[in-house]
């Protein structure tokens, strides 16, 4: 099925669609879920007969509800579009463990379907979006199944991370949710799988012969997947302290990205074929060792203007929870055996960035010695781009060699294109019944298998993370760790792929040689 067909599928079909947003009064709903639904509405990608019902414990008037769900809409959104969207939205207040409240919700759904002129034979879809903490997943899921679930239509349940705290708790949650809903009804959402450049990896790899040819241990030295945030926990330290950076980012987001970069070519673009290949990669990853891990926790900025992690009143004063982690993984299969994969994530660092950096091996000859390595870099955020660091001769009479780039920066190449938010992309997939970009239960199980021994050792031994300054690149020794454990060779000076004038000297950005 072509991409254009997939994008239009939900809008073209006159499917009677009800979307229930549980936790409608919470931050996730107002910041992500409702803006994503509004974006799809603006683009005409919601089915024509759609109703959205918000459900939460908070008592709110219609005015309070509409003000809350539109608070993160863009300032330049036309008021007429907002009014039309709100016309298909309503709010129901109820508890998460009271059967009568869920029976009332079912009555609202039935009444809305009647108002949408439900007829015998109509294709109907009920989507239950759990924008809720995992502590109430099972309670809400049980009430949905017993008092709301309609076996005469298609039912889809969207669950947000975190999916458990370790392997045991994840399996327990999976068993309980699996007893309520079939696997093909469950959509475990990881919003990184909805990001444009992550979704682009499949096309980049399998639609271009020259990439797939060198996508293996014979040509690639190491792979780094990096997630950096320039801010700290900002008052959410108490919540973050329960999880730490490994559970918050690495075990889910970064490992999912790794599985897409590392997987073999699937039989087709069908969701199960793709998820089969991702799972096969995860099954071949060895559990991470503590000696292959570097942990850090941020303190105050050098000038003292930014507080340290433990300056947050909600964080225990003796906390050893890491806010930075760098791990080296190994995929034990024929394609990747011997290639280190470095996952790096941290808060309160020097910039906001998420990148996939594939560093190739040195040229197998000495014709051009002492040159920087070729790299393929996929920048997922903030500015989507793909570029290849490559060696060229400087233009003109010079015989110097310099590092240059083959560059596809989306903000330059597609200047009039608005890339949709990841949540909008994934909700569209839910509407279309496409599981490709959602986490299957066996994927989740393997992900926890990889990280749980490390997490338990860190917790048991109370491993003290290295201190680093707010706004720095991380703990001391970050680059040395990647070099020693993964063989990563960093360019002598930081490389920036900005346009240069004809007279600019490119040799300052990389090691250079003479032709």
From TrEMBL:
Region (Disordered): 298-317
Residue runs in coiled coils: none
Catalyses which reaction(s): D-glucose 6-phosphate + NADP(+) = 6-phospho-D-glucono-1,5-lactone + NADPH + H(+)
Domain Glucose-6-phosphate dehydrogenase C-terminal stretches: 202-486
Protein's GO biological process: glucose metabolic process; pentose-phosphate shunt, oxidative branch
Gene Ontology MF annotations: glucose-6-phosphate dehydrogenase activity; NADP binding
Pathway(s) this gene product operates in, as recorded in its UniProt entry: Carbohydrate degradation; pentose phosphate pathway; D-ribulose 5-phosphate from D-glucose 6-phosphate (oxidative stage): step 1/3
Biased composition (Basic and acidic residues): 300-313
GO CC terms, sorted: cytosol
Record PANTHER family: GLUCOSE-6-PHOSPHATE 1-DEHYDROGENASE, GLUCOSE-6-PHOSPHATE 1-DEHYDROGENASE G6PD
HAMAP family documented for this protein: G6PD
Record protein name field: Glucose-6-phosphate 1-dehydrogenase
């Amino acid at each position: 099925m072509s991409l254009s067909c997939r994008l239009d599928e939900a809008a073209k079909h006159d499917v009677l669609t009800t979307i229930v947003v549980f936790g409608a009064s919470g931050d996730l709903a107002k910041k992500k879920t409702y803006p994503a639904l509004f974006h799809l509405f603006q683009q005409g990608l919601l089915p024509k007969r759609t109703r959205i019902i918000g459900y939460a414990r908070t008592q709110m008037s219609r005015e309070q509800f509409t003000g809350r769900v539109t608070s993160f809409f863009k300032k330049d959104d036309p008021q007429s579009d907002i009014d039309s969207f709100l016309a298909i939205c309503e709010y129901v207040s109820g508890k998460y463990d009271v059967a009568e409240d869920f029976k009332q919700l079912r009555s609202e759904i039935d009444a809305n379907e009647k108002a949408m002129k439900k007829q015998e034979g109509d294709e109907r879809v009920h989507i239950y979006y759990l924008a809720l903490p995992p502590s109430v997943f099972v309670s809400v899921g049980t009430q949905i199944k017993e008092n709301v679930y309609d076996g005469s239509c298609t039912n889809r349940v969207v669950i947000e991370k975190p999916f458990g705290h370790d392997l045991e708790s994840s399996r327990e949650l999976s068993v309980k949710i699996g007893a309520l809903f079939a696997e093909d009804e469950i959509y475990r959402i990881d919003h990184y799988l909805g990001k444009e450049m992550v979704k682009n990896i499949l096309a980049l790899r399998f639609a271009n012969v020259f990439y797939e040819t060198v996508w293996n241990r014979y040509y690639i030295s190491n792979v780094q997947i990096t997630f950096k945030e320039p801010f700290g926990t900002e008052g959410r330290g108490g919540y973050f302290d329960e999880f730490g950076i490994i559970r918050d980012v690495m075990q889910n987001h970064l490992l999912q990205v790794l599985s897409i970069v590392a997987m073999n070519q699937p039989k087709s673009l069908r969701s199960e074929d793709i998820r089969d290949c991702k799972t096969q990669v995860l099954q071949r990853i060895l559990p991470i060792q503590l000696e292959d891990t570097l942990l850090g926790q941020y303190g105050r900025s050098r000038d003292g203007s930014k507080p340290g992690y433990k300056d947050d009143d909600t964080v225990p004063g003796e906390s050893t929870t890491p806010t930075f982690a760098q791990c080296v993984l190994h995929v034990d299969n024929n394609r990747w055996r011997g290639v280190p994969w470095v996952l790096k994530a941290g808060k309160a660092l020097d910039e906001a960035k998420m990148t996939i950096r594939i560093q190739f091996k040195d040229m197998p000859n000495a014709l051009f010695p002492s040159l920087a390595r070729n790299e393929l870099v996929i920048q997922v955020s903030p500015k989507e781009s793909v570029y290849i660091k490559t060696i060229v001769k400087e233009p003109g009479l010079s015989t110097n060699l310099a590092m240059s780039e083959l560059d596809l920066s989306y903000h330059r190449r597609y200047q009039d294109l608005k890339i949709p938010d990841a949540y909008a992309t994934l909700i569209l997939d839910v509407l279309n019944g496409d599981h490709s970009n959602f986490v299957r239960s066996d994927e989740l199980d393997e992900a926890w298998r990889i990280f749980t021994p490390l997490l338990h050792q860190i917790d048991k031994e109370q491993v003290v993370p290295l201190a680093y300054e707010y706004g720095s690149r991380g703990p001391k020794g970050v680059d040395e760790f990647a070099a020693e454990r993964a063989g990563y060779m960093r360019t002598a000076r930081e490389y920036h792929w900005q346009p240069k004038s004809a007279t600019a000297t490119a040799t300052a950005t990389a090691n250079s040689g003479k032709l």
